[in-house]
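ingest -> validate -> predict -> emit
validate: passed (alphabet ok, no gaps, 154 aa)
predict: started
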Amino acid sequence: MDLEFPSKRDVWLAVVVWTGTAMLVAGAIVTLVSPGAITARLALVATMLGAGAFGPWVLYGTGYHVTAVEIAVRSGPFRWRVPLDAIESVVPSCNPLSSPACSLDRLRIGYRDARDRRRAILLSPADKSGFLAALAARCPALVLAGDRLLARLS
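emit:
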């Protein structure tokens, strides 16, 4: 059974996103009523409104779909796929690097890509324990150890 896990959203991030969106909408309104060539103003307004929509799209469009074979990650227009059999570890993280996570309360998923290179992705499921349990049930090579998944010792 496939499971959906929305991203946890930090309040400070929502405030930053919505403040930026409000500023862009206000700028678009000012641009519309300003003098000048209408085509140039409309192009600028369209750009500002598009940029203003991007933040909320990422903020509310970030989530994780756990299937029998992969984690499908979406964040606004961006997509990633992490094969479950490639996952080596899942550990807590507060790393602030850019990632498909709307909170600093994150999980770092270490995995190997198709070329056998080590990769990592930072996710912030709102239900961390449910997310870890779903992965543990689908990844026989990993064992749940508290708030992390580690390689099973042979």
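The helical segments are 11-33, 38-60, 128-138.
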